[in-house]
Amino acid sequence: SPAPAVVTVTGAAGSIGYASVFRIAAGEMLGPDQPVALRLLELPQAIPAAVGTAMELDDGAFGLLKSVEVLDDPRKAFDGANFGLLIGARPRTKGMERADLLAANSSIFASQGEVINEVAADDIRVIVVGNPANTNAAVAAAHAPDVPAERFTALTRLDHNRAVAQLAHRANVDVGEISRVTIWGNHSATQYPDIFHARVGRRSGAEYAADREWLVDDFIPTVAKRGTAILEARGASSAASAANATIDHVRDWVLGTPTDEWTSAALSSTGAYGIPEGLVSSFPVRSVDGRWEIVEGLEINEFSRARIDASVAELQAERDAAFNR
Ligand code: NAI
């Protein structure tokens, strides 16, 4: 069997980390033939909880799990890493301004980017989950000049999956019959879930989008505000669905997206669709030979353009705040 893939999970003792690592150990992220070596990176105060998680991983007796290390030193945690799941972030606490949040996270992700640049494996692939995910990914990439920017991605797959599920409910079809949905822009309330190009069984997403009242007053806000709705219902933020989306993202990146379909991920813009280069924005993407490619050439109508532009403007403002700290 191949050498174990080194998977570094930051914030591993947190809710999403906890919901991710067992599925990674079970082979759901990298496939049933790929052994894994897990590195759980945590802040010193959460090391005991991470040790407990490592004990439970032991107790899973996972055939593919070759080792688990619990670490509070990023340099050790990312040494030789093939995958970085950057889940840990500074949460917004009471009285904290958005600018303070951006600054606090920008220093975490700048230093993790530097460490990744120095010690990770040459093929390192990074998915940033910790919020503000897009901007954190841009900051990490900017501090890792030797790693191609395209290897720093941010999670919008949860938003994508939410959009697919909502559209499936509306059309009364199975989620498997939905494809070509796109999340554009930022993983925030300004994100734009685009169904104009979607396939919905034998019908097109545009047919559903023609019902503007449903699109504007129901579908788009339901997807964009789903995180808040879950928080209110559960009394805790979405963790299992976020972990599931993170695993979907990495699995598709490594093993490929189905031919003729696409998914959504936030990638460093190449300038496609007029989105400024270097902004980490969500796009329609395909994974080909282990690399994400932006699906180009889609026709963007006025309705979509205005929404994409609004989310991109927010990304620019976040970037300015994060880089000028
Ligand atoms: P959590 O608070 O349960 O866990 C976060 C963990 O990260 C904590 O254990 C903390 O000790 C650790 N941590 C903080 N800074 C760290 C650092 N510098 N290095 C290593 N570990 C560090 O939070 P949860 O629910 O697991 O969420 C994690 C992040 O994911 C949050 O920023 C949240 O906003 C974000 N999120 C993103 C989503 C997306 O779709 N992109 C969806 C849901 C959540």
UniProtKB/TrEMBL annotation:
Active site (catalytic residues): H187
Amino-acid positions noted as binding substrate in the UniProt annotation, renumbered to this chain: R92, R98, N131, R162
E.C. numbers: 1.1.1.37
Catalytic activity: (S)-malate + NAD(+) = oxaloacetate + NADH + H(+)
Residue ranges annotated for the Lactate/malate dehydrogenase C-terminal domain, each copy included: 156-323
Record keyword Lipoprotein present: no
Chain positions recorded as NAD(+) binding sites: G11, A12, A13, G14, S15, I16, G17, N105, Q112, V129, G130, N131
InterPro entries xref list: L-lactate/malate_DH, Lactate/malate_DH_C, Lactate/malate_DH_N, Lactate_DH/Glyco_Ohase_4_C, Malate_DH_AS, Malate_DH_type2, NAD(P)-bd_dom_sf
Keywords for the protein's UniProt record, in alphabetical order: NAD, Oxidoreductase, Tricarboxylic acid cycle
Keyword NAD in record: yes
Lactate/malate dehydrogenase N-terminal domain mapped to chain residues: 7-146
NCBIfam families the UniProt entry points to: MalateDH-SF1 (TIGR01759), PRK05442.1 (NF003916)
Membership in a protein family: Belongs to the LDH/MDH superfamily. MDH type 2 family.
Function: Catalyzes the reversible oxidation of malate to oxaloacetate.
Protein name: Malate dehydrogenase
